[in-house]
UniProtKB/TrEMBL annotation:
Domain Methyltransferase: start-end pairs: 42-124
Pfam families the UniProt entry points to: Methyltransf_25
Any Gene Ontology biological process: methylation
Name this polypeptide is given: Methyltransferase family protein
InterPro entries in the cross-refs: Methyltransf_25, SAM-dependent_MTases_sf
Keyword line: Methyltransferase, Transferase
Source organism, top-level taxon: Bacteria
Keyword Ligase: no
Source species: Amycolatopsis echigonensis
Length: 187
């Protein structure tokens, strides 16, 4: 039976996290965002805030949103340069658009992708990193590039692939989608 990935679930998950490891940013964010000029960024489903912190340290104006107040309490201790927001991304509405919208391993992603795409400014970038299908993760947290469902008229896909990376104790298999929103149709 799938989890109800609601605020209570995530608060309990993060309350039980041993020591809240201060992990570095996801390598796919560093690789893809490192190619972009800094601007306004959204870290959607920010968790402990490693990506938001890295973006802020590299000149981005960052809004980081997560459903869990428990994890944001720890994230706020990590960086005061980030605007930390506790909200459900399926109901939250940002003020304006972003030059970069990044999300890593969000759950219940299907209905969220359309919202994330709307929040990208023309000429901006959407970066989605998810667990590859077939991994030992709930179906709600695995994606394919097709799952994101971007309109070919409005987006140029720059990366759509599965990547394997080494981690302590083994390997992880990620699905990466990086796309640039065209400034106007037929651009």
């Amino acid at each position: 039976m799938p989890h109800a990935f609601d605020q209570a679930y995530w608060d309990e998950h993060w309350a039980g996290a041993a020591g809240h490891a201060q992990l570095g940013p996801h390598p796919q964010l560093v690789e893809e965002a490192g190619k972009l000029p800094p601007g306004r960024a959204l870290d959607a489903g920010c968790g402990e805030g490693a990506e938001a912190h890295w973006l802020a340290e590299n000149g981005w104006q960052v809004t980081a949103v997560d459903l869990s107040e428990e994890v944001l309490r720890h994230a706020r201790e990590r960086s005061s340069k980030v605007e930390w927001v506790c909200a459900d991304l399926l109901n939250w509405t940002p003020s304006g658009q972003f030059d970069l919208v990044a999300t890593h391993y969000v759950h219940a992603a299907g209905p969220l992708f359309g919202r994330l795409a709307e929040w990208v400014a023309p000429g901006g970038t959407l970066l989605v990193v998810g667990h590859h299908h077939g991994e030992l993760h709930p179906p709600e947290s695995t994606i394919t590039a097709h799952d994101v469902g971007l309109d070919d008229e409005q987006w140029v896909i720059t990366v759509a692939e599965n990547r394997t990376r080494k981690v302590p104790g083994g390997e992880l298999h990620d699905t990466i989608l990086c796309a640039r929103k065209v400034s106007s149709p037929n651009a």
